[in-house]
Design brief:
Layout (H helix, E strand, L loop, with lengths): L1 E2 L2 H6 L8 E2 L17 E6 L2 E8 L6 E4 H6 L14 E2 L5 E2 L3 E11 L2 E12 L7 E3 L1 H7 L2 E3 L4 E6 L2 E6 L2 H12 L4 E2 L14 E3 L5 E2 L29 E7 L2 E9 L6 H11 L41 H17 L3
Parallel strand pairs: 4-10, 4-15, 5-9
Antiparallel strand pairs: 1-2, 3-4, 3-8, 5-10, 6-7, 8-9, 11-12, 12-13, 14-16, 17-18
């Protein structure tokens, strides 16, 4: 994939523009195939803001009010807006105003700053901002959702920002779950002068269901917030420790992206001997470390329970397990 920037070069004669290209190797770090959105971490008004949706289908740049408040911006800095935003379903919402904020893309030396005219919208969203066509054009950026990369020209070369596939999928899951609500803490402590703050999700935010550029969903206020509890990962894949030992396996999340997946597999295989595969691998724990005891009143009269009856298959299984423990010296 190659994008020709000759026309853009005419408008920027002082910059030596080179072609922006995307290669198949750049997509190998991702879990394929995928349909994930491009979600980036950006520096906005000297704060590190997570969950910024790059949406070339949006004609506006959106900043949601909860992030506006987290950035400690004042309402008096907002400029009035006359035109409303229209969602895909035909609903409209009037922005609270417009504000221009400095957004830094990329890292030194291939870094670029753009003054973004955000429309501040009071609406629930899983995203903190939506970066639309106006900013992408000002940055002369090219976004590839397949590669999950945003590239743009700078005087020092092509700037590149990687999208996090795991964050994109988590955000999409929040957006598509029926009325999800979650409480997250946000660190607003500045450790050193000039250090960026971390702005993520804000306490007690009704995320609603928002999947596109300016589809703002329901604007009804909700007071019945509740905390969404975590749940075990269900989409798992089984991996062998060694091709020669099919019985020794472990399970990892199928949605893990590269290189995290390979690093996790490598780490677990490296520590294969730390796992207990038989009763002989469990010699016991030194009582000085930990001991199990029953809280029994020594004055209480002991009572012998009646012997339970099991079917022959259950008896065979019990005897097999007991023999394993006796052989290993556990009992």
């Amino acid at each position: 994939m190659q994008v020709n920037l000759e026309e853009a070069a005419k408008s920027y004669p002082n910059n030596d523009l080179v072609p922006i290209t995307f290669t198949e190797d750049e997509a190998k770090r991702l879990s394929q195939p995928h349909g994930d959105a491009l979600v980036l971490e950006l520096e906005i008004a000297k704060h590190k803001v997570m969950r910024n949706l790059i949406d070339g289908g949006s004609s506006a740049d959106i900043l949601f009010t909860r992030v506006f408040s987290q950035l400690k911006l004042l309402d008096k800095t907002l400029k009035p807006v006359k035109n409303p935003l229209w969602g895909f379903s035909g609903n409209e919402v009037m922005p609270l105003g417009r504000i221009k904020l400095k957004v830094v893309f990329g890292t030194v030396p291939c870094q670029s700053s753009v003054g973004v005219n955000f429309l501040v919208v009071d609406s629930p969203s899983v995203y903190n901002t939506i970066i639309g066509r106006e900013t992408l054009h000002a940055l002369r950026a090219v976004a590839s959702t397949y590669h999950m990369l945003l590239k743009f020209p700078t005087p020092n070369g092509i700037g590149v920002i990687d999208g996090a596939q795991t964050v994109s999928r988590e955000t999409y899951e929040l957006a598509t779950t029926a009325r999800p609500r979650r409480t997250e803490s946000v660190s607003t402590k500045r450790h050193n002068p000039g250090e960026c703050l971390q702005v993520g999700a804000v306490d007690h935010v009704d995320y609603g269901v928002i999947t596109g550029a300016i589809q703002l969903g329901s604007l009804d206020p909700r007071d019945d917030f509740y905390e969404q509890r975590g749940s075990p990962v269900k989409d798992l894949e089984e991996v062998r420790f060694s091709p020669d030992e099919p019985g020794k396996t472990f399970k990892i999340g199928r949605l893990l992206c590269e290189p995290l997946r390979e690093k996790l597999i490598e780490f677990l295989r490296k520590h294969e001997n730390d796992f207990a595969w038989t009763h002989h691998d469990i010699p016991g724990i030194d009582p000085t470390v930990m001991v199990h005891s029953l809280a029994v009143d020594p004055k209480a009269r002991p009572i012998k329970q009646k012997r339970r009856s099991f079917n022959p298959e259950r008896y065979a299984a019990i005897n097999a397990e007991v023999e394993k423990l006796v052989e290993a010296g556990s009992i």
